């Protein structure tokens, strides 16, 4: 039997003016934002670091540090470790589970100033970049070399590669290029006591014992601060096409996926799902151009299919053959398909899917459940949740206005979103543990790709058994015995 770990220490310190004086010896003054003397920033300056993208979580940090080098990160952590000051690593602050926001007055360590590419090899496609590089800027960096990043997500304009690796972000390309556990070759990490762990290898193969970097991928800043990432970038496809398929019934998604995989095989690069509510909201809030009325009529949901291949004519022929097969079937799985005819239409079709998160946030306050469940249950899970809220008397315009589902079919990942007028305890209590129990009944995951953050620490047991949880606690205790790294996140 495994022994229980002792509880993490809780007697952590707050930053003082003396600490600020010490940080001023490590960083230049513009790299310190603090309401404390001698910096005297305003609360407004701290606002972007104390509040998350959804405006759901807020912290009370008095101090934000923005190091420019790994050495500076190391010196900051060494000091915080000695003084037992808790820290929260922050990337682009686009996380959706409250991981990047202090729970109290932890020091925020923003990685925004560590934004240099260290090297790129156009032959192997291996990119080594500092953690604060924004995903879109890395995409732009490798594009002239005919490479792409192995991941893509709606937050690409703000999220950082260090944040992506720390959350093990999935996104829109996972179906084709797999998870970051495969494409990240190495990481450079500063451990909680300031030790620099240099695992920034560019080797494709390295079976020399435990693969330590995997522990940092998806650890959400609880084991150390990632300062550098070595990542394999695939060659850019020569041709990309996309099509939106309108389906009369959700039940057609599964056989459609099978048919599409079978016919498109190696050129299939995305198979993304949005239900009717998600589509209507995307259109309402100007994400992509609405399809023609007759294409939408009678559609219960939509699927966006993308192909990426080596020869345009070949790919177009395959896609056209697929559409012909689908539309000429005795009992067609789709009502219609809208094929992008040019790059603007290609982007517009993608925006209908990628823009749902933005549309939801414009519509109201979102309760987000990022779950892995069997594909066959996607609709059922959304319907059960809606009916449950109705039975609780919460489905009306002053409480919950919409319950919708969208996500990554190929990865079995449903984004169940509940939109409300405000975040209230009553709605929260109606949703949890209800949804977690539903997920557990399907042996699913309560966090498919967004992580645990502070949102789901209490619910981990719905997806992880006792022994796994004990081991996780032991790992945390080993790396961070003083509990200064992102306290209250992942493991409470
Ligand atoms: P942050 O939000 O700043 O931080 C996230 C976590 O990582 C925190 O726990 C933080 O402490 C830690 N962290 C950040 N940087 C470091 C570092 N250098 N070292 C150690 N820890 C660090 N997620 C998906 O998986 N798939 C999607 O398709 C997707 N789409 C999104 C679309 C929109 C519009 C939005 C707003 C979010 C989306 N997300 C998605 C969620 C989010 O963008 C990802 O989780 C992203 O990887 C977070 O990166 P970030 O730089 O913003 O990290
Ligand atoms: C997506 O796939 C993101 O669009 C965000 O993971 C999902 O907002 C969400 O719930
Ligand atoms: Zn997603």
Quaternary arrangement of the chains shown?
single chain
| pLDDT averaged residue by residue | 96
Strand order of the largest sheet: 13-10-12-11-15-16-14
Give start-end ranges of low-pLDDT stretches.
1-9
Instruction: State the share of residues found in helices, binned by percent.
Output: 25-40%
Anisotropy-based shape = globular
Instruction: Indicate the CATH class of the largest domain.
Output: Alpha Beta
| Domain module count | 4
Q: Provide the structure class.
A: alpha+beta
What is the fold named in CATH at topology level of the largest domain? Alpha-Beta Plaits
Strand content: 15-25%
Ions, cofactors and other ligands present here are: flavin-adenine dinucleotide, (2R)-2-hydroxypentanedioic acid, zinc ion
Domain FAD-binding PCMH-type: 57-236
Keywords: FAD, Flavoprotein, Oxidoreductase
GO cellular component, one term: mitochondrion
GO molecular function: D-lactate dehydrogenase (cytochrome) activity; FAD binding
Characterize the structure shown.
With 492 residues, this protein is an alpha+beta fold. The chain folds into 4 domains: 17-113 and 475-479, Uridine Diphospho-n-acetylenolpyruvylglucosamine Reductase, domain 2, CATH 3.30.43.10; 117-232, Uridine Diphospho-n-acetylenolpyruvylglucosamine Reductase, domain 3 (2-Layer Sandwich); 239-356, Alpha-Beta Plaits, CATH 3.30.70; 364-450, 2-Layer Sandwich (Alpha-Beta Plaits). It is built from 18 helices and 16 strands. The protein has helices spanning 17-26, 43-50, 70-83, 135-142, 161-167, 174-177, 180-183, 213-216, 253-264, 276-284, 293-296, 312-328, 343-354, 356-363, 378-391, 425-431, 434-441, 466-479, and strands at residues 32-34, 63-65, 87-90, 107-110, 117-121, 126-130, 184-190, 196-199, 225-232, 239-247, 268-275, 301-309, 336-339, 365-372, 400-408, 413-420. The strands form 3 sheets. Strands 13-10-12-11-15-16-14 form a 7-stranded antiparallel beta sheet, sandwiched between helices. The chain has a 5-stranded antiparallel beta sheet with strand order 5-6-9-7-8. Strand 15 and strand 16 (413-420) form a beta hairpin. Helix 1 runs antiparallel to helix 3 (70-83), helix 9 (253-264) packs antiparallel against helix 12 (312-328) and helix 10 crosses helix 14. It is globular. The structure holds flavin-adenine dinucleotide, (2R)-2-hydroxypentanedioic acid and zinc ion. The site of zinc ion has 5 residues, from strand 15.
